[in-house]
């Protein structure tokens, strides 16, 4: 079912999401709703969506079609790149944020059945994954909170 994408400043977008504990029909329904919502986007190219964006504070995100449950950031690369980003939870058409992020990350997650996954992401994909991870931690691009987090990434690198 297509869900409405929640807009900032709704509180679900600024709260840290809870881990998924049960891999059941409720999770399958959430993932299907997220996939339907991505497919329904009428403007831009939706590269990712996090559960808080449809009002559910669970650690579930979809990046470039890959469903990631309980993702954990394992490693940030040293090189920082700045790329233009936008967000469907912000004003429609707002794609003029230039966000510094690590150009390589390594994360682990579970698939919808609970099986462990691990992978490195580079360049634009790394930016998208970090953007969605930010949603799971209650951060949105362009907000003071996110800009402070980006500064921490620079310090780590």
CATH fold annotation? Peptide Deformylase
Secondary structure category: alpha+beta
Number of folding domains?
1
Number of strands: 7
Helix content: 25-40%
CATH architecture: Alpha-Beta Complex
Instruction: Please give the alpha-carbon distance between the first and last residues.
Output: 41 Å
Helix segment count?
A: 3
Report Rg.
15 Å
Superfamily (CATH H level) name:
Peptide deformylase
Order of helices and strands: HEEEEEEEHH
What fraction of the residues are assigned to beta strands by DSSP?
A: 25-35%
Widest sheet: strand order? 1-2-3-6-7
Basic shape: globular
Q: State the CATH class.
A: Alpha Beta
Low-confidence runs (pLDDT<50, min 5 residues)? 153-157
The main sheet comes to: 5 strands, antiparallel
Average the pLDDT over all residues and give the rounded result: 89
């Amino acid at each position: 079912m297509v869900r409405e994408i929640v807009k900032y400043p709704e509180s679900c977008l600024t709260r840290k999401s809870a881990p998924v504990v049960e891999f059941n029909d409720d999770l399958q329904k959430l993932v299907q709703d997220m996939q339907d919502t991505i497919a329904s986007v009428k403007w831009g190219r939706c590269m990712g969506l996090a559960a808080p964006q449809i009002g559910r504070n669970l650690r579930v995100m979809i990046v470039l079609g890959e469903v990631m449950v309980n993702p954990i950031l394992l490693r940030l690369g040293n090189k920082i790149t700045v790329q233009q980003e936008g967000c469907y939870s912000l004003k429609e058409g707002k794609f003029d944020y230039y966000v510094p992020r690590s150009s390589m990350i390594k994360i682990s997650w579970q698939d919808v059945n609970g099986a462990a996954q691990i992978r490195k992401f580079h360049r634009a994909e790394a930016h998208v994954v970090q953007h969605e991870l930010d949603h799971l931690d209650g951060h949105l691009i362009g907000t003071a909170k996110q800009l402070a987090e980006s500064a921490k990434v620079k310090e780590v690198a």
